[in-house]
Write a structure and sequence with these properties.
The protein is mainly alpha-helical. It is 86% helix and 0% strand. It has helices at 4-71, 80-103, 107-121, 129-154.
Length: 155
């Protein structure tokens, strides 16, 4: 019996230590997993927001090119390929916008994204050079506003 008592005391002393160690390790593991999820979401948002801004710039570039073709009597350059490129880039911009909207937790940022795409599309409707220049300036500004609005979600 004399040898059993020290063994029981040793076991009873070890159990709380093991329990505390397990609890701290579990909490550290949960924190690490949360940080990993947060960083992954941040990286996905950066990718999505950059892809949307890039798609908008490409779409904008081709709309301006097509406007000049249509309004400067360069009818021979208004090919089906150019028209198809406009459609493909508009589709790409929509797809990139939807991805950005799915990753953001902000209804306001989703509205800004939609407004930005609509504003870029307005380039197509410019009736004269002054209207085109104004639409180009406005579209450049709203793209920058979108990028600025995304900053809090990736910082």
């Amino acid at each position: 019996m004399g040898a059993v008592l020290p063994s029981v005391i040793a076991v009873l002393g070890t159990l709380p230590g093991a329990t505390v160690t397990h609890t701290f390790q579990r909490r550290a593991s949960e924190r690490s997993a949360q940080l990993t999820r947060t960083e992954k979401l941040r990286q996905e948002r950066i990718d999505a927001y950059c892809a949307f801004a890039g798609a908008l710039l490409e779409y904008r570039r081709v709309l301006v090119q097509r406007w000049f073709v249509q309004h400067e009597d360069r009818v021979d350059e208004d090919t089906p390929e150019l028209q198809e490129q406009v459609y493909k880039l508009r589709y790409s911009a929509h797809e990139a916008m939807f991805r950005a909207q799915m990753l953001t937790g902000s209804a306001e940022l989703s509205r800004i994204a939609e407004r930005t795409l609509e504003n870029v599309t307005e380039l197509h409707h410019a009736g004269d050079r002054a209207a085109l220049d104004a639409a180009r300036d406005a579209s450049r500004l709203v793209i920058r506003e979108f990028v600025t609005a995304t900053t809090p979600y990736v910082s």
